[in-house]
Design brief:
Strand content of chain B: under 5%
Strand content of chain A: under 5%
Number of helices of chain A: 5
Mean pLDDT of chain B: 86
Low-confidence stretches of chain B: none
Number of domains of chain A: 1
Number of helices of chain B: 5
Low-confidence stretches of chain A: 127-138
Largest sheet of chain A: none
Largest sheet of chain B: none
Number of strands of chain B: 0
Distance between the termini of chain A: 41 Å
Order of helices and strands of chain B: HHHHH
Oligomer: heterodimer
Order of helices and strands of chain A: HHHHH
Mean pLDDT of chain A: 83
Structural class of chain A: mainly alpha
Radius of gyration of chain A: 24 Å
Chain lengths: ~140, ~90
């Protein structure tokens, strides 16, 4: 089994991803859109969501496959344009993706710390066994 | 695809591209093509499709300790957990 990669190791591919992620965020959240940039930013955090969007945001965040035609029609009926729904959906998805990525990297950090601790533990155990042998000789 | 504007495309080159794919799909017997992800990426590409494709390409095909096959497998697994076919 290969070693767990270090999520904090600053090597080229990671920088490549970070740079592209930022460009995606800029395009989606900070470009001029049909939905106010403040609303798009709120949608990525999942907090302070304007009411007609709340149910839709929750569905897209937790289980996007449960979204139905009715959900989209409800937003159209509430006065949101197709472009606004398009922007809202992608903003919510970006936020959900970011939280999952963070959780994954955090799990990786914890796992690496765990394996580092168990290696030290194993070394100590070996050391202790070695000492026992020395005592036996004496 | 639930948003008609995204389904048919907004700009002429994209409409033409989607229609062509639809026609080819009909001929080849796959009425579901083009996939919705393609429609999403082609709709207002400066907002999402272009930077998203750029990121996805770096992740799946760029330099990495993981092979292309391994990365595709990760993506497939995650999509499966999300009940997504892509």
């Amino acid at each position: 089994m290969r070693d767990l990669p270090d999520p904090d190791e600053p090597h080229e591919p990671h920088d490549l991803y970070a740079q592209r992620w930022r460009r995606l965020e800029d395009a989606l959240l900070r470009s001029s859109g049909t939905l106010d940039a403040g609303v798009r930013a709120a949608l990525t955090t999942g907090r302070e969501i304007p009411e007609p969007l709340a149910l839709y945001v929750d569905k897209v965040t937790r289980h996007a496959y449960r979204v139905t035609d009715d959900d989209v029609w409800a937003l159209l009926a509430a006065g949101y344009s197709q472009d606004q729904i398009f922007e809202a959906t992608l903003s919510v998805a970006l936020g959900a993706a970011q939280r999952r990525l963070r959780a994954g990297l955090e799990a990786l950090r914890t796992a690496r710390q765990g394996s580092a601790t168990s290696e030290t533990g194993a070394a100590q155990a070996t050391g202790a066994a070695g000492e026992d042998k020395v005592e036996e000789k004496e | 695809m639930r948003l008609p504007k995204v389904a048919t495309g907004q700009r002429l080159p994209h409409k033409a591209l989607l229609s062509t794919i639809r026609l080819l799909a009909l001929v080849s017997g796959d009425p579901t093509a083009p996939p919705d992800i393609m429609r999403t990426v082609l709709y207002r590409p400066e907002l999402f499709g272009r930077p998203y494709s750029d990121l996805a390409h770096a992740l799946l095909r760029g330099p990495s300790d993981w092979s292309v096959g391994e990365r595709e497998l990760f993506a497939t697994f995650v999509s499966h957990l999300n009940a997504c076919r892509f």
